[in-house]
Amino acid sequence: MESIKDKVAIVGMGCTKFGERWDVGIHDLAIEATYEAIEDAGIGLEDIQACFLGTVTAPVLGVGGGLVSDALKLRDIPIIRNENWCTTGHIALMEAAMSIMAGMFDVVLALGVEKLKDTGYPGLGTGRGMHPVLEARRTAPGSFGMIAPAYFKKYGLSNEEGKKLIGQIAVKNHHNGSMCPKAHFHNEITLEQVLKAPIIAWPLGLFDCCGNSDGSAAAILTRSDMAKSFRDDPIYLKGVGVSTDSMLPHNRPEFGWTSFGAMVKSSQMAYEHAGIRNPREELDLAEVHDCFTITELAIYEDLCFSPRGGAREDIESGFFSLEGGLPVNVDGGLKCFGHPVGASGIRMTYEVYKQLQGKADKPERQIKNASRGLSHTFGGPPQTSAVAIFGNEKG
Amino acid sequence: MDYKLTFKDYADALTKGKLLGLKCNNCGKITVPPKMACQECGETDLEIVEMNKKGKIVTFTKVNVAPEGRENEIPYIIALVQLEEGPWIMGNLIDIDPEKATMELMDREVKVGFRVFPGDKYSPGNQPRPLFSFA
Ligand SMILES: [Zn+2]
Hints:
Chain A is of the alpha/beta class. Chain A is built from 13 helices and 11 strands.
């Protein structure tokens, strides 16, 4: 298998304001993100040769390519829509990259858009819930909540110690997001607030759960040998990985619930493409799937940011803070920036892209000399994981 | 392809107090609830076996925000139980005030019963599902 490193570049990106966007339709979100992306790339809509669209629950208008063809005047070009749980945005990016590597197109749009609030989601992603008989009224918070007792027990944490440990992740992400103009929420929170918040699915309280938001993000991709004709500072794709566990975690005997094969394999795949041996040292920032605080903790270990059982020490030392050794979710993450499902993988990549260009929206959140960044989504019961790695120079 | 144990037969047996599984003649693992092929290896040569309905809690959560239309069931505990025969199954835990659910539940031994839950617009009607109580 050949490495995909440095074959594709991103030359323009856009991201809407995330939040409860009752004032706009899904069309408008797609326009808001895509117009920023084409302006950033210095191209027109007519230059887009294909569109890879990620959306999960698009309401009212259906979920096919027509969802955006009219809005964006993308007439008569291929529009290919995917849905793959929370990895949907990343899958759109990867499809776009693969189409370029295959030589089919030179300039493509990867677009993620979700108008989550209009689907009737009550705000916590519970919806109709999982299979009522087989899965005992499990909800999204309930699914991920089950990681926590298993992790706490394995590493000898009491109820209170465990709650405090994951609560610090929410405090960090709200701090980061409070500085982000496009984030859904802008409030700092205290650990005490996290601990006292109503329980959604034990031990996860309100502040352990991400925001359910409307939003869209877009990327213009091209061949890396053409990238500098668009801009001086393209961002190169270094590696991707996707993995789906062959068995639902709750059906897998001996499953530990502290580590997920899909997260390990997808990240290893991406590291291999990118030539990264020690992600803890070699990455300058990471945007990861903090749908719930406990998920971000599991990610630290599965993506090899922390050694097994080492997440606690790294959380407590501030290793993942904006000033730490490996800043994680520097724009607030799903927790504070929000989680319009199909857009999230591209929103994370937008933050990585801006950081690697040295163009963070506010100088106080710019990571100095950032040259390698990672974005990651994880979805399903949970079962499916996607990772992409980017760099600001070839090689 | 033969469906060795249909979901209806599994549910009927559950309401008679029997928990049925499918033992794989290739890898020996047991699949509960039933599927057309072994959930471990994909083999279709399976035989019906009866579980002794004993196991222990391997992880759990307590749900305070329910799926749509199930608000009257909260709060409830969802437990993942490892049966003595090996497979893991999911169900609700009774015998404890859900608001008191903490780490002390881990590894607790339970027995498997059932309760019939009302159907909704997404299901064909009333359905039994496993219910755990302390052994
Ligand atoms: Zn088998």
